[in-house]
Amino acid sequence: MRDTIVIGAGLAGLMGALALAEAGRRPLLLSKGQGATHWTGGTIDVWGDTEGNDLREVLRSLPASQPDHTYARVGVEGLEAAIDRFRALVEAANYPYVGSLERNTLLPTAIGALRPAAFFPVTMAAGDVRQADEMLIAGFHELRDFYPPLAADNLQAQGVAARGVYLTLPPIKRSLEFTTRTFAFLFDDPGFREQIGEQLRKERGSATRIGLPAVLGLKDPVGAMRDLERITGAQIFEIPTLPPSIPGMRLFQIFRNAIAHVGGRLQVGSEVLRGIGEDGRLTTVYSEAAAREQEHRANYFLLATGGIAGGGIRTDHTGRVWETALGLPLRAPQSRAEWFEPRFLAEHGHPIYRAGIATDDGLRPLDAHDHRVYDNVVVAGSLLTGSDPIPERCYSGLALATGWHAGQLLRIED
Amino acid sequence: MTTNIPHHDHIELSIEHSLDHCIKCNICSSACPVSAVTDRFPGPKYVGPQAQRFRHEQQPSPDESVDYCSGCRVCNQVCPTGVRIAELNARARGKIIEDRGLPLRNALIARSGLMGQLGCGPHAPLANFAFKNSAFRWSLEQIMGIARAAPLPTYSTYSFRSWFKRQSQNSEPRPKATKQVAYFHGCATNYYEPHVGQAAIAVLERNGYEVLLPEQNCCGLPLLSNGAFPAAQRYHTSNVEKMLPYVKRGIPIVGTSTSCTLTLKEEAPEILGLHSPEVRLIAENTFDIFEFLRLLYERGELNTDFKPVDRTLPYHPPCQLRAHRVGRPALDILELVPGLHLNESTADCCGIAGTYGYKIEKYQIGMDVGAPLFDFVRSSGSDLAVCDSETCRWQITHGTGVPTQHPIEILAAAYGV
């Protein structure tokens, strides 16, 4: 029914699907389950630089040391184009991102570590630890894995003035099970914001900014932030939590609506199991379904199922490493003995996490002899070999850049 | 009583695997429409893969809150690692019922065939009068625990099967069609909404199919979702026997109730652990009607001679359709109709979930679950909504006052029939 298929619902697949939908190609996006959006903090991490370097310069100099790095495929211009489109998208949804490629901003994590990010929702902006203002970190006993005193102590130890407090949950209908979503629903209610705002105002002391777990609602987080700022007189910022990530869920909703608005379709919960092709072209993919596989014939395919962490690559104890959707050839360590460096926190990461698909300049998959496998398939995101997004801290930057670029490459076909 | 679940069948193994695939990311808990609105259900992760570690055949179930799972399967859909949470929950409920027996109320509302026979026919006005009567509904709630406000459907004065028999006797003999399908109408079409079956037959005939009507009984899904496994198994076995001759002759089974077709395809085989070649054959040859029409379209065989239908309608893909994991076949076909535009809801569930929302202790949960969908339908301003599943249609109308049709009725109208 659809001539273009995108596989994977992380940032790369969503950006690719958006590009294709906007070009009128009406893509169908298939994914096994919810994509990586729900697992990530919602920041755009371009490169893990903490020295204040201009990221564009860092990326421009990258090919000198790593000529095959994934960023070299898209270039700084490709990255900027993707970020421009992304920012326009979220801005239009009243969820603007701020930041810059000139240098990373350091934002506090839920345990008070400092995390570099190039772009981030405006609701996280006041967390910039390079500003000198004192912070109050506030949370709830009911929300697991967010401990304000711990975060504040760790920030304090790194020279950031911070204090942590627990708030008292006003009487609500819920008493047992609290997830990030429970709190997001609560913050969608202006009445709840008023009550929390009052508590924060009393607790604020000399702090001029207040950090809260990133649960300020799914409907209008910027409105929630403004409400709390009005009541407390302090700046309010969100701190990403452990999954499920509310900022990630916001992003997914924004993408889903935008893609559907221009004729794309998302089919979450349909894992692509295999594909068949002929004469160097992929013709059909099959997704898991009740009683029998669903067949999808299409002319163009964008593969963005993720790397080892995202489920696009699997490994087993024998040392086998394989690509799950289409069985494409991977570049990966030959034997299991070569997967890991001796030290867990090895500076340049572990070789196995560089496993991925090698591509030509058009992001089309190559086999071990550098021959193109399919002419009508492009690959994006962390399924690509050429980088290790863990130590390089570039998962979301690479996903945006390669997803958008891959979508551009396919949209001009025909 | 035992349910004859083989110890190492497919789903049993995948349940074992499931436990290790769960990475506790809580994405299911953040998608579950039930845990979104009530404390009574702690979420799919807890009652599914987590509680499963504490379940043992010889021991009582550790977690009764699993009974508050509505079976909508949103958890399965969003799970990034493929854990079959809804099946875990269904089986856990089955174990509770096996240990303690099925409450009378559930035994009754789970037998939709029986409920249908009760009021369908010339005496339907009487039955409808009773079921619309507030005193009667109040007593039904007090005695049986069936929520008095819940949207019981309106009985038809004739059954679909009786209409089918009459019209095949009375109508002019048609030129013999070379292609045949066997129609699975389900209880709702037979006793409450014969017009859905009539529309389906009209559409299939427009596409050159002769529609055969096999003997059939309730698919058993209401029994399955109430944990009454032995009865559900008898129902399914009986349907398999009745439809096997058709499938063996190469005639596909096509249904308009997405929950019945899902039960034939997957729910009954997997939850009950039935994997005989006959069960398999029925499963592989059963199609939701729009899935079937889409296959025709993909083969270039669909009659696309549609009249324009200048309407924009809100459409809700029901949970039981999404659980087929075949996308949005009704949208794929209806977008071929000139002038027709369907706006898809992104709401997770209407809340009724089969028999769930009829139970007094769950009625309000169902209404709260459905609230975002009701908002969507109401704010569309449309005087008609579209949904593939019968109980969902009744719930949408109950929650919004907006009449709701099966998409096959819209398609029949586009064919001018």
Question: Features of this protein?
Answer:
heterodimer, A: 414 residues, alpha/beta, FAD/NAD(P)-binding domain, Rossmann fold, 2 domains, four-stranded parallel beta sheet, 19% strand, globular, B: 417 residues, Fumarate Reductase Iron-sulfur Protein, Chain B, domain 2, Glutathione S-transferase Yfyf (Class Pi), Chain A, domain 2, 4 domains, 21 helices, 51% helix, disordered N terminus
Mean pLDDT of chain A: 96
Assembly type of the chains comes to heterodimer
Using the coordinates shown, work out and report the CATH topology of the largest domain in chain A. Answer: FAD/NAD(P)-binding domain
The CATH architecture term of the largest domain in chain A is 3-Layer(bba) Sandwich
Q: What strand order characterises the main sheet of chain B?
A: 2-1-3-4
Q: How many separate domains of chain B?
A: 4
User: What structural class results from the helix and strand content of chain A?
Assistant: alpha/beta
Which percent bin holds the helix content of chain A? 25-40%
The averaged pLDDT of chain B comes out at: 93
Going by CATH, the homologous superfamily of the largest domain in chain A would be: FAD/NAD(P)-binding domain
**β-strand amount of chain B:** 5-15%
| Low-pLDDT runs of chain A | none
